[in-house]
């Protein structure tokens, strides 16, 4: 026994521009992360005017470059995209978890318990370091430089 499922698709659904997948399909690099990878045939192969191959060689070279670049990228991405995405997702999840549940609480704990270090360090700066640099600044503040042209002599 077979069961037939009828799907009603309205023409509005087919022409809708508010699809969840449309941003993924049309603009796959919205933040322009890989703007340096926009390589064209002319960026790689360029013949100077003094040395030129046959026109058919140039056309076929251009076609083979574009086709091989496109299909080899598609094949490699077919093999690697899902595993690399999975590994990156796991890595970012682990790093986020460590940062949220381990690193930030430890830093906050140190900041809370080390308030006396901030007080001592501020006192050292105000007692020892600040007067030294204030005196150096006052000593060097009176230095003036006059620039003269050779024509003025």
From TrEMBL:
Coiled-coil parts of chain: none
InterPro entries, A to Z: Caveolin (IPR001612), Caveolin_CS (IPR018361)
GO CC, one annotated term: Golgi membrane
Keywords: Cell membrane, Golgi apparatus, Membrane, Transmembrane, Transmembrane helix
Major location category of this protein: membrane
Membrane-related topology note: Peripheral membrane protein
Subcellular location field: Cell membrane; Golgi apparatus membrane; Membrane, Caveola
Keyword ATP-binding listed: no
One GO molecular-function entry: molecular adaptor activity
Transmembrane stretches, start-end: 78-103, 115-134
Protein's GO biological process: caveola assembly; cell differentiation; regulation of cytosolic calcium ion concentration
Protein's UniProt keywords contain Metal-binding: no
Domain of life: Eukaryota
Similarity comment: family membership: Belongs to the caveolin family.
Role, per record: May act as a scaffolding protein within caveolar membranes. Interacts directly with G-protein alpha subunits and can functionally regulate their activity.
The protein, known as: Caveolin
Species of origin: Zoarces viviparus
């Amino acid at each position: 026994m077979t069961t037939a499922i009828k799907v009603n698709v309205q023409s509005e659904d087919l022409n809708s521009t508010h699809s969840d997948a449309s941003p993924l399909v049309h603009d796959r690099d919205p933040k322009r992360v890989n703007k340096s990878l926009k390589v064209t045939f002319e960026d790689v192969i360029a013949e100077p005017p003094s040395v030129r191959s046959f026109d058919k060689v140039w056309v076929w070279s251009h076609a083979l470059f574009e086709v091989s670049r496109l299909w080899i990228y598609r094949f490699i991405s077919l093999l690697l995209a899902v595993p690399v995405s999975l590994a990156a997702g796991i890595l970012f999840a682990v790093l986020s978890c460590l940062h949220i549940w381990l690193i930030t609480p430890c830093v906050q704990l140190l900041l809370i318990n080390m308030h006396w270090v901030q007080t001592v360090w501020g006192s050292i700066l105000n007692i020892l370091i600040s007067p030294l640099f204030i005196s150096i600044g006052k000593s060097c503040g009176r230095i003036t430089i006059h620039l003269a042209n050779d024509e003025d002599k």
